[in-house]
Amino acid sequence: MNRRRAFTWLEFRWQLAIFLILTALLIPKFMGARENARRANCQSNLKQIGLALQQYVTDNGGDLPSRHWPALLKPYIKEDRVFRCSTTSGPKGASDYFFHARFLEKPLKGSASPPTLILLGDGNDGLPLARFPDSWRTDENSPAWRHIEGANYCFADGHVKWLKSKRVTDDFRMVIP
């Protein structure tokens, strides 16, 4: 007998159910990979800003820049997009990162514990590149927790790290010198 075999309705439903279950299991993995790529891009941006900041400090007798830090770091950074996190879609000409206001126009050399002191990080305000507020809050609104319940930070010694939001808001030694 030369009978053509086709899927029955029941077999089709089982295959569809298995496909949907596998899809539901794999989609979060792909989304997590995409977010990890964005986080890495953001960390790269902060690292470049941190290197520019170190060069600025070297060129200016050890002093950190003023509240116009993005404009002052421009000669050391080739592209404006370095000031933008790929996770956000805020206004052009704004920075997605904050500069710790307690350090504006102060010498970095005398700062206590540079490996644990945050200088730069993910910011919420989308402020123009030429200004940033005098104070930095440590509530849920600032810094920005845009990378899966955490944010990227550049420390005074130049290293960049992702930290959970609770770690930063609970450990004020990282924030307040």
Structure description:
The protein is of the alpha+beta class and 177 residues long. The protein has one domain (10-174). It has 3 helices and 4 strands; from the N terminus they run H-H-E-E-E-E-H. It has a 4-stranded antiparallel sheet. Strand 3 (150-155) and strand 4 (160-164) form a beta hairpin. It is elongated. Mean pLDDT is 76; it is low at 129-136.
Keywords:
single chain, 177 residues, alpha+beta, 3 helices, 4 strands
Number of domains: 1
**Secondary-structure element order, N to C:** HHEEEEH
Strands in their spatial order, largest beta sheet: 1-2-3-4
Kindly estimate the percentage of residues that lie in beta strands according to DSSP: 5-15%
Q: Could you report the average pLDDT, rounded to the nearest whole number?
A: 76
C-alpha termini separation? 86 Å
What is the overall shape? elongated
Helix content: 25-40%
Give Rg in angstroms: 23 Å
Work out the number of β strands: 4
Largest sheet: 4 strands, antiparallel
- Tally the helices: what do you get? 3
Question: Structural class, judged by helices and strands?
Answer: alpha+beta
Flag low-confidence runs. Answer: 129-136
